Amino acid sequence: MGNKILDKRGNLSVRGQIRGQVTIFIIIAVVIVALVLGYLLLRGSLVAQGVPASIQPAYTSFVTCLQEDAETGINVLESQGGYIELPEFVAGSSYMPFSSQLNFAGNPIPYWYYVSGNNIQKEQIPSKDDMEEDLADFVEGRIRNCNLRGYHDEGLVITMQEPDADVDISSSRVKISLNMPVTFEKENDTAVVRNHEVTINSKLGGLYDSAKTVYEEENDKLFLERYGIDVLRLYAPVDGVELTCSPLTWDAEKVFDNLQEAIDANTASLKNKGEAGDYFALNLPVDEDVRFLTSRNWPNSFEVLPADERILIATPAGNQQGLGIIGFCYVPYHFVYNIKYPVLVQVYDGEEIFQFPLAVVIQGNNPRESLNATDATNVVPELCQYKNTEVQVRTYDTSLNPINADISYECFGNTCAIGATEAGTLKEDFPQCVNGYVTAKANGFKNTRYLFSTVQSGTLDMLMDRVYDTNVRLLLDGALYNGNAIITITSDYATETIVYPEQKEISLGEGQHEIHVQIFRNSSITIGATTTQQCIDVPQGILGIFGITHEKCFDIEVPEQIISQALAGGGKQIKYILETDLARGSVLEIHAESLPLPETIEQIQDNYLLFEDKNLEVGFV
Q1: Cis amide bond preceding 501, omega within 30
Q2: CA angle 48, 49, 50 (to 5 degrees)
Q3: Using CB atoms within 10 A as the burial measure, which of 13, 21, 392, 607 is most buried?
């Protein structure tokens, strides 16, 4: 029974037993309090403060939506060079093949550097602030579409007010703070949660910083152009001399094919780190891995001079009087190349990839000139620094309903961002300019420009025409056509081209449109191999010392070619399109007539002449 204590009367004492029991009760109480506190702390991390248990699953689903939307936006930023909302598309030209975006596996990615169709060097590098703003807008635009229908079916009433998101991008995480009152009501339980926050473990910020470092290294050292020039000199005739009395010839198409194949392979071999002496190791000042990709299927341009059609010819020298006695003839050659091709740069850590494209430009066998590498958004023209004229801008649709639009001002080639209309109105200071342009941009509307001088205060009302995504149906000789065609529609506000039937939707607004359709069908026209003869005078043995020569001829062969697609239908038409046709979701139906399927080169040329006189029938159904 343990130790017993006798009192003065000799009776057993129970004080020792009582003390032991009290100690046990204290320990149990401490454990219970700890468990309760632990539960409350854990519960606080799992349950939003003030949200009843009956509502908690719905709120948890809402926060999951917020996280998924944020993760989707981060993926878009990383895959589109730091953009979610793409800059305005600018087409290329035959001189410069680059548009303002590279289409990579169906995903348009804005170039960080490119040369416009009119030979102007362009940069469009987003800042981190731009990315944060883009992601915030993306989350605000999607969060109200969170699918909570299952909870509605259970009798839960959910009311969402206007969202206001704030995004903070750091090197290893992205924090989303959403101010958006959400009310949950179920039977006698009601909860209002105003502030919601999620943190995504993402290397977006760090990858972006490294991508900018790679870009700045390229812009400073032009290492991609220099590797391209190495490939050019290894795989194409550039400069040289050969001892021969016969002309040297090269097929330019074969030269370009070899160059493209070599550029693809050598660009893909470039890497960030490598052993000493590794030709392909760039040793860039970034910790992440870097990959460089290009493809002959992307827009590119290869030019060479001098060239006679497709043939590069170098004629011999040294067959002048007196040199033939030793049989000494030589063929010097010097060809000048202009080469332009895109490279997609991928900076990655594990499975997370940030990518951006840039243009590689080699002009006259030399790399292009460097630009000062700066964020395009941080370059503020001097004009924009002095905004001192208050102007009120009001934006409406054609029914005079106010719409929200981004407002900018163009003057002397400079564009100044002014702000955005709220409820269709903006009152802001503009830089002073005579005959500048106020530009309004809004989703679902034509970009609108008004001539407006800002030498004194005033008010400008801008009407913006809506554009609609419209389905296109093409018929050939009265029957539905699903073969290859190129459809181009030109208006006063845009030019859009679709490749039919892969693309069957185009954005149209009210106004005059020129519709241009070219239909291509399979053909098997063979351009036979040709041989042309070229003759030169060469010294005649030992008599050459006396200037006696004889004619020597050589053949230049052009290999056989096959044309697999030929123009076989189409035409042109000018049509005024009404907004009423577009608004009701009508299909733009284009009726074209066929042309004879050509079987010879001459018939292909005839079809292009016939095409000029072909008209289309265009209507809405």
Answers
A1: yes
A2: 110
A3: 607
**How many domains, in total, are found in the chain?**
5
The predicted pLDDT at position 183 comes to 92
**479 and 387 both lie in a single domain:** no
Tell whether 428 and 563 lie within a shared domain: no
pTM score > 0.90 for this model? no
Residues of the chain short of pLDDT 70, as ranges, are 1-50, 94-95, 118, 243-247, 308-309, 316-330, 371-383, 525-550, 552, 554-565, 601
- Residue 95 maps to a domain: no
Work out the burial of residue 510: count CB atoms within 10 Å of its CB; fewer than 13 is exposed, 13-18 middle, 19 or more buried. buried
> Is 109 a member of any domain?
no
Asked whether the beta carbons of 517 and 552 are under 8 A apart, the reply is no
- Do 486 and 566 sit in the same domain of this protein? yes
* Residues 236 and 315 grouped into a single domain: yes
Q: Does residue 104 fall inside a structural domain?
A: no
C-alpha 404/C-alpha 25 separation (Å) is 69
Domain end call among 181, 202, 223: 202
| pLDDT for the residue 602 | 74
CB 343 within 8 A of CB 360: yes
Helix (H, G, I), strand (E, B) or coil at 253: helix
Q: What is the pLDDT of residue 485?
A: 85
Alpha-carbon distance values, 450 to 408, 460, 505 (Å) = 11, 9, 29
Boundaries of domain holding 573: 467-620
Residue 263, SS3 per DSSP: helix
Please indicate, yes or no, whether residues 234 and 370 belong to a single structural domain of this protein: yes
Residues 458 and 532 in one domain: no
pLDDT, tens digit (0-9, with 9 covering 90-100), for 325-358: 333 456 788 999 999 999 999 999 999 999 999 9
pLDDT in tens, 356-404: 999 999 999 999 887 654 444 444 456 677 788 999 999 999 889 999 9
Instruction: Please answer whether residues 212 and 356 qualify as being in contact, where contact means their C-beta atoms are separated by less than 8 angstroms.
Output: no
Contact by Cβ (8 Å): 489, 465: no
Show which of 430, 464, 498 is a domain's final residue: 464
Instruction: Clarify whether residues 472 and 460 are in a common domain.
Output: no
Contact 567, 520 (CB under 8 A): yes
Q: What is the pLDDT of residue 378?
A: 42
SS3 297: coil
- The residues, ordered by sequence, that sit 6+ positions from 355 with a Cβ below 8 Å of its Cβ are 78, 79, 81, 104, 109, 211, 344, 345, 346, 347
Q: Are residues 299 and 232 in the same domain?
A: yes
